[in-house]
Design brief:
CATH superfamily: DD-peptidase/beta-lactamase superfamily
Strand content: 15-25%
CATH class: Alpha Beta
Shape: globular
Protein name: Peptidase S11 D-alanyl-D-alanine carboxypeptidase A N-terminal domain-containing protein
Family: Belongs to the peptidase S11 family.
Largest sheet: 6 strands, antiparallel
Keywords: Cell shape, Cell wall biogenesis/degradation, Hydrolase, Peptidoglycan synthesis, Signal
Organism: Methyloceanibacter superfactus
CATH topology: Beta-lactamase
InterPro entries: Beta-lactam/transpept-like, Peptidase_S11, Peptidase_S11_N
Helix content: 25-40%
Strand order of the largest sheet: 1-3-2-10-9-8
């Protein structure tokens, strides 16, 4: 197949890049926004509407876990800490574990429930136990986003359930994924959890790339009717490491195919070597 020569701009994450190879056209048509970042160089290899405001859906839970990881490292909670489930948390819409008001769930189980099942009741439980109320925790999430350089992200809840004011961008989600990996490497491995068993039920991770795309080690899917199908993913092969975000896919299959196509297209341009420190 004939290759077209494209103008290439390799800039830092804050600036972005534009690339238009043929097979990216199909990927672009399947999603509303996308970004591919080289974790070793800090460069952006591809963008499509990277700063367009979109609903994050359950990508929200990456920030919920980022804050929880900070509490874990500080010793404010442990994996065995029992989180109390309120009526508010139990009443969250599916998907959820079906937690009952007045019951408890251990921190380690709540983490795995968010990563695999994307459980909204577990997300609200984390929020209330750490922030007092979910509303207050959402303010913590937004402030943390600002501190990380996520300039266009606002959170209103811990789960990603529909809220017109809860917005993000592909670029901001890439920034968040980068910080999770570099700020909390001891906890990031949870995002590679493929299955989680809780009270006799086994849950499979919604991130299909973990099961069939070489080198995938996380991180999170998301979907609501308003957002479409979202995915933040991390792939390591040898000493190369790419992170991608796609938002607004029409179907889960098209979203996943778009992500794979974008990774495939840019793998050759990824820098081999040690990663740069998060900014």
């Amino acid at each position: 197949m004939r290759r077209f020569v494209c103008l290439k701009l390799v800039l830092l994450l804050s600036l972005g890049a534009v690339l238009t190879p043929i097979n990216q056209a199909a990927a672009a048509s399947a999603v509303k926004a996308a970004i591919i970042v080289d974790m070793n160089s800090g460069s952006v290899l591809y963008t499509q509407a990277p700063d367009a405001l979109r609903s994050p859906a359950s990508l929200t839970k990456i920030m919920t876990l980022y804050i929880l990881f900070a509490y874990l490292r500080a010793g404010k909670v442990t994996y065995d800490t029992d989180l109390k489930v309120s009526a508010h948390a139990a009443s969250q819409s599916p998907t959820k574990l079906g937690l009952k008001p007045g019951s408890t769930i251990k921190v380690v189980d709540a983490i795995k429930a968010l990563v695999t099942k994307s459980a909204n009741d577990a997300a609200a439980t984390i929020a209330e136990n750490l922030g007092g109320t979910e509303e207050n925790f959402a303010r913590m999430m937004t402030q943390t986003a600002r501190n990380l350089g996520m300039k266009n992200t606002t959170f209103r809840n811990a789960s990603g359930l529909p809220n017109d004011e809860q917005l993000t961008t592909a670029r901001d989600m890439a920034i968040l994924a980068t910080h999770v990996m570099k700020d909390y490497p001891e906890y990031y491995g949870h995002f590679e959890t493929r299955y989680f068993t809780y009270k006799g039920r086994k849950y499979r991770n919604h991130n299909r790339l973990l099961f069939g795309y070489k080198g995938t080690d996380g991180i999170k899917t998301g979907y609501t009717r308003a957002s479409g199908f979202n995915l933040t993913a991390s792939v390591k092969r040898g000493d190369k490491h790419l992170v991608g975000v796609v938002l607004g896919g029409r179907t889960g299959a098209q979203r996943d195919a778009a992500m794979r196509a974008l990774f495939d297209q840019h793998w050759a341009k990824a820098r081999a070597g040690s990663p740069r420190q998060a900014r």
